[in-house]
Amino acid sequence: MRNDHVRALRTKIFACCVAAAMLVVLTEPTAVLAQDKGRGLGLGVDLNDPNPIGAWFGIARPCPPPAGDTSPDHAAFCAVVCGACPNSGALPPEMPLISTLLADGTVLADDAGELGINHTTAHGRWAESENDGLANRPGTQRFKATFLWLGQNFLGSNKLDNSVRVRFVTYFDPKDPDRMIGFIQPHFFTPFPPGFTTGGIINVIPANPADTIASNHIPVVDPLPLLPAGCSLPPAGNCLGTYHFVIRRIKAE
User: Fold this and answer.
1) What mean pLDDT is predicted for residues 31-46?
2) What's the pTM?
3) What is the C-alpha separation between 16 and 177, in angstroms, rounded?
4) Among 149, 153, 190, 210, which one is least packed by beta carbons within 10 Å?
5) How far apart are CA 45 and CA 58, in angstroms?
């Protein structure tokens, strides 16, 4: 009888330990997620409130609005963000786009230009936009991102010849959380030699004995430093123009 009692006691102790371990496993990640949800992951976003995190679809068109766009809101918006909004002439009249803002601060973007000039998916970062000289929109929270893609102007060449770094600015209205108006400014870079005689190999800075890791891996024309303010067209700058857009949230069903 004594042995049976000891075995039963050991079984209860083991069961209690397993239950306690399972409780820790099940509750600790939940607590971490709840903490992250309230903190907004350092983006100035409270995930408990309406926020711009998610996948979005919309149409971007050059500023100033083309003749077919008779919306006074679009015209006024373009005038605020880029004034007369000069255009390089290199931009198509319309660009459907899909963008995804992730809670960790990364952004992914695709657009119809991938079909015409054959460029890669864009990758970048987004954050709350404050004290940076960009235009405000009353009643909204401003967010901005920058993302990068690699492309080629000549289809069928199988060689990259350009990169584009985009300024992406959007205005989030918590009272209208499933739509956002915004603008993009693509900046064009040519880190590759002109033509294709070198096989599309990127031009890089000379080797630097003081930084042997970076040697021969930094492009001469580097698209990663901070973008210049505004949109200065070539030859003074490398901005191709300004698009305005309206994007709508892609919802689960």
Assistant:
1) 48
2) 0.78
3) 47
4) 210
5) 23
Does residue 145 contact residue 165 with C-beta atoms inside 8 Å? Answer: no
| Dist CA 247 CA 98 (whole Å) | 8
User: What does each C-alpha distance from 195 to 36, 162, 207, 222 come to in angstroms?
Assistant: 49, 11, 24, 18
β partners of residue 249: 56
**Inter-residue contact 83 to 63 (CB < 8 Å):** no
**Position 200, amino acid:** G
Match 């096989």 to its residue by tokens. 199
CA distance 172 to 193: 40
Q: Which residues contact 230 (CB under 8 A, 6 or more apart)?
A: 82, 239
pLDDT at 118 over 80: no
Answer yes or no: are the C-beta atoms of 192 and 248 closer than 8 Å.
no
pLDDT-based confidence at 248, cuts 50/70/90? Answer: very high
Report d(CA 77, CA 145) in Å as an integer.
Answer: 19
Residue type, 33: L
Rg over CA atoms, the chain:
25
| Poorest-pLDDT segment among 32-36, 79-83, 176-180, 246-250 | 32-36
Alpha carbon distance 199, 191 (integer Å): 13
> How far apart (Å, rounded) are the C-alpha atoms in residues 104 and 53?
10
Q: Cα-flanking dihedrals φ and ψ of residue 113, to 5°?
A: -65, -20
| Residues paired with residue 54 on neighbouring β-strands, in sequence order | 101
Q: Which two tokens stand for residue 191?
A: 């880190």
127/94 Cα distance (integer angstroms): 26
In the three-class reduction of DSSP (H, G, I as helix; E, B as strand; rest coil), residue 59 is classed as strand
Kindly state the tokens that stand for 46: 């409270």
